[in-house]
Amino acid sequence: MVTFEVEDHDGNRQPIEAPDDMGLSLMEVLKASEYPVLATCGGMALCATCHVEVLGGKDGLGEATDVELDQLEALPEMYDTSRLACQIRISDELEGAVFKLRGEDQ
What we know:
- By secondary structure, the protein is an alpha+beta fold.
- The protein has helices spanning 26-32, 66-73; strands at 2-7, 13-18, 51-56, 82-84, 98-101.
- Strands 2-1-5-3-4 form a five-stranded mixed beta sheet.
- It is globular, with a radius of gyration of 12 Å.
- The model has no long low-confidence stretch (mean pLDDT 94).
């Protein structure tokens, strides 16, 4: 299991514990934890509605792919630490990381 924090749209932070041996994406864990993540495209990196900002633990994530960067660059707000939750795999590298929800929540 790996533990990381999620900051919601209101600025509230909660720890999340997730299995690191099932190949889940951060998007899947956020949806299962009932966070308001639209994930319209179902994790194909086509909609950017699972946009998160990495507030801590960015080094363990690896680099964003060109497809992911294309989606992020089309957003009205992109940060140096922006990522798509669907492209982040849950692994022990995420231990202690902090993610802020940025995607649409309607």
